[in-house]
Amino acid sequence: MKKTVVVLAVAVAILAAGSMAGCSSPPSKPAPAEKPQPKAPEAITGSSAFYKCYISARLWAQDAQPYRVESQPTTDSKGRDGKAGEWRAGFASPSQHTTRPYTWAMGDVSHSVEDSFSPTNSSTQVFNVQFLKVDTDKAFAVAQQHGGDKLLEKEPDTPVLYVLEWNRQTNELLWHVIYGTDRDTAKLRVAVNASTGEFSRVEK
Fold first, then answer.
1. What angle do CA 51, 54, 57 make, to 5 degrees?
2. Which helix (H) or strand (E) element contains residue 26?
3. Mean pLDDT of 40-69
4. Secondary structure class of 111 (helix, strand, coil)
C-alpha cells in the first residue's frame, strides 16, 4: 500500500513538473508577414496611356486640353510595337492659364507641379482630342516600313520613343517615332499622321 502511494506521489510530481515546464516555455513566434510583391513591369500604347491621364486631367480642369504625349525611356521597355512602360502627357487649362503634366507608370497615374500657360507658346500648342485616331502600334509599323526595320536589324538594342504633337506648319497631329535615346541624337525619326495613320516624312 505504501509503495502504491509513493508511486502515485512520484507520478503526480512528474506531471506537475511537466506542466510547469510547459507553462514557462516561451510562446511560439508568429510567422513573418509576407512582403508585398512589386508590380510586374507593364507596357501599353500611347493612346491607352493618354486617355488614362486625360481622365485625371479633366478632374483637375474641365477645359483641360492636351499639348504633348511622349514615352519615357525605361530599362524594362525598348518601345517595341508602340508600347512603353512609362508615358507623360501634358495638359493646359486656358481658363486657369496653367499647364500640368501627368505620368502613367506601372498602372498608376500621377501629376507634377503646375506651370504657366500661354496660347502663343509653340511648345504647348494644344490640340483637339478628336484628332487622335491612330495609336502608336500603327505608327511604329509605318515607321518600320520607312527605315526602322533595317535600323533595328543592324542595331536591335536601339530604343524607340514616341512623341505626339500638333504641327502648326502642316496643320496636323503627328506621332514622331524616334529611334534613339532622345530626339536630338536620334538615329532615325519618322513622322506619322495621328489622324489617318499615313506616313508623313522622315525627319532625319
1. 165
2. none
3. 95
4. strand
Cβ neighbors of 39 (< 8 A, separation 6 or more) are 106, 107
* Amino acid in position 72: Q
Which residue, chain included where needed, has cell 498602372? 107
Query: pTM for this structure?
Result: 0.81
Q: State the amino acid at position 140 in one-letter form.
A: F
Q: Return the biggest CA–CA distance within the chain.
A: 117
Model pLDDT for residues 89-122, shown as the tens digit of each residue = 999 999 999 999 999 999 999 999 999 999 999 8
> What is residue 33's DSSP assignment?
P
Task: Look up residue 128 and give its amino acid.
Answer: N
Residue ranges of the alpha helices (H) in the chain? 2-24, 46-60, 136-143, 149-154
Read off the C-alpha cell for 138: 500603327
